[in-house]
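Problem statement: downstream parser choked on a complex file, so we are re-checking the raw output for the 2'-deoxyguanosine-5'-diphosphate run. The parser issue turned out to be on our end (a line-ending mismatch), but while we're here, posting the original submission so the record is complete.
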Amino acid sequence: MDRTSMIERVRAEMPEKRWKHTEGVMATAIILANRYGEDAKRAELAAILHDVAKFWPTVRQGNVIRDNNLPIDVLNYDKELWHASVGAWVAEHEFGVTDVGVLDAIRYHTSGRRGMTKLEKIVWLADYIEPGRDFPGVDHVRAISEVNLEEAILAGLDGTLSFLIAKGVRIYPLTIEARNSLIEEIKGG
Ligand code: DGI
Ligand code: FE
Ligand code: FE
């Protein structure tokens, strides 16, 4: 599918505000890819599709997870997490994406995971710092993103975890594993 048709189809899946967010993630992912030596086209492709399932009714998201044997544990956690694995499935099966690295960047864009690839890191971070974001601490993460990809994600994950702890909700294990793994990567153990 060509880029323009894909953009039109993704845009039709969400309200205009979420599409603006997606455009911000696309632009930011390209900047980060160029800064940190990743393929900007792959980063943009993952960005275009990362929230494609975000506004699907949760019943529909849950059905995709159950019907296609996607990891089922996520159903025990916040529904906000579901759209990531569902999005990867939609990207592959409805948008014809075959690049497994791109699919994984979509799949792990909300939680992160242990041993994230550079592409996964770029999409995770672009989602956090795109220009439309205004949550507490985002400017600090933006500043770090100018100089260190891993440190920026660690700061972002800390922000997300603090937010989730303040809300009193359970943390999805992959999010914690992502943080532990980044600390090991940065500090060498
Ligand atoms: O889809 P976006 O809003 O662009 O951003 P996202 O895919 O990072 O989703 C953010 C939401 O996911 C936000 O409400 C916090 C939630 N979230 C992220 N990690 C976890 C989580 N929720 C739980 N319960 N546990 C997590 O580990
Ligand atoms: Fe998302
Ligand atoms: Fe997003």
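For whoever reads this later: The radius of gyration is 16 Å.
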